[in-house]
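Every protein is a chain of amino acids, and every chain bends into a shape of its own. Below is the pair of lines this work produces for a single protein:
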Amino acid sequence: MKIAFRVDASMQIGTGHVMRCLTLANALVGDDTTIHFICRHLPSSLEEMLRDKGFDVAILPAREKSNEEFPLAHSDWLGVAQAVDAKATLELVQNQEYDWLIVDHYALDISWERILRPAVKKIMVIDDLADREHDCDILLDQNLYANQEIRYKNKVSSQCKTLIGPRYALLRKEFAEFRKKVKPRQGKAARILVFFGGVDANDFTTKTILALSQITEHNFLVDVVIGDQHTKKEGIETLCQRLGYLCHVQTNRMAELMANADFSIGAGGGAVWERACLMLPTLSIPTVQHQVKQLVDVALTGATYTFDAEDYTAEKIRTHAELLMDNSSLRSLLSIRSSEIVDGNGVYRAAQALRSEIEINLRQANELDEKLLFEWRNHPKIRAVSFNKNEITWDQHHNWFSASLSNSNRVLLIGEYNNKFVGVVRFDLQSDDAEISIYLVQENENNGLGLPLIRSAEKWICKHRSGVKKLNANVLETNKLSQQFFIKAGYTPETRLYCKEL
């Protein structure tokens, strides 16, 4: 796959959008995938991080703000008109045959996406606000809201696949790994974690440090995490040193710090799901307006604690922090409830959704393919998951192949993607049913293409054999990978058969 991300980071935007796109990019990395980042605003430290990960980064040219009207609530985050940004992005992606353009930006909407639409195969939008229309094939909103099922009604087309809720939270792989090691919190809050994002433009970090320093009825350790871009970095480091708190700057140990903490104070946004994944009870404070409803709706599930305020002062933070520290039962409940809504595997679900939307080109096999299929079918990995595990002789293969091509009730298809062979699909037709059988070509790097191959084959059979109403797959009990492919494609297991109505 060839994928481009359009995303920005700045003091105004924060770093969370880039970080979750980086998380998704890491989940999509493979021998068959190239990934590019396109940014207009990006701190040098983040640009260096992306390049160190092996991703190409293109920086759109700086331009002074014009007098044009910017209609979206967050238009000033972009700094230019959408049409200007779209034109600059288009120059980078056109004629490049990108499979996906992934857009994570509150200042971009359907008008921008329509300009880019002809230049890429598919578009994915990552959003949190549901405050504008989109022209996309997949929309991902990892947040939990009381009305999440209808938030994007009339904002995306009926053909758009929506990935909604914390089930799709874009968390780095270490969160899923540490989740296996943690348990719901009980007892005293002996270690407290403070983290308000990579930028924390309004310096909630200092307020919280001062709030904790006023709590004298409890003994606890404090870990403070800030980004390298924090404008009060030196002052926070000095304050932590004076109070005996540990200050971590631009750390890559966030999952470990959360796993080791008993209680947390932090911002809304994506960090809510990191803490929930690791069952960390949290006093959550909205640092920007759009986090207010997010935190209220999450709090209604019992998965976090928040409070309303016109001004989140150090004194108010101290009051609520002390309330939670005094109430171990409440912290335990927050821990248990948060663990129920996030499992840490959301990024892999999102990556699979992207891969499953790939269109595999299918053509019917012909006489020139006989040798190819002979070699592919005899690969040790394919024989291991076949009903006949013996090596097929050339005569056996020749007789089978010739009979298959002359059999009007058999369809033999070869899948290709990006000029590489992907796999083989066989349909055996019986009245309005058909048995489907697939295997991937092992000589090529085809990881993640099993599900797209099945779905592309279904589209082919519906188009060319419209009388087929049901598909059956006969899968060995030991072939777990194929079982997963068919289940994800919507097939229902019936002993060894996997069935689907078309």
